[in-house]
Amino acid sequence: xxxxxxxxxxxxxxxxxxxxTLITAAIPFAVGAASLWFRWPRLGAGYLALLTxxxxxxxxxAILDKIRAAEGADGAGRIRERTLHTIEVLGGWPGALxxxxxxxxxxxxxxxxxxxxxxxxxxxALIALVGWALSRVG
Length: 138
Known about the structure:
The protein has helices at residues 21-39, 41-70, 81-102, 110-137. 72% of the residues lie in helices and 0% in strands. It starts with 20 loop residues before the first helix and ends with a helix. The chain has one domain (18-137). It is an all-alpha fold. The radius of gyration is 17 Å and the shape is elongated. It has 4 helices and no strands. The longest helix is centred in the middle third of the chain and has 30 residues, at 41-70.
């Protein structure tokens, strides 16, 4: 019988994150929250809280999927890419980005990386659009 893999068994590589990964992950926190905070403090605080929660969820799901992949689980036991991408586009991509490189998961799958980059761009474009629309209101 195979031994069950737990989070402690997944090697962490946070000391070897690519340069700029944490800065890239911090961009929506800094820009989005700061721009909203000065004009609409409650909205800025809400966005920051939502982004923090979704990033924690994205981080946890990416690590959980890595654990299940290391266990040899196939489609039934893994986190679906659709689920990962949904959390990412809603705002969980900073946590997912750190987790991907922190545990080296989904970093070589080209189709996933392309979709991830597109969803990050979409999220940032939506935030910019919302900020622009709010600035027009008053």
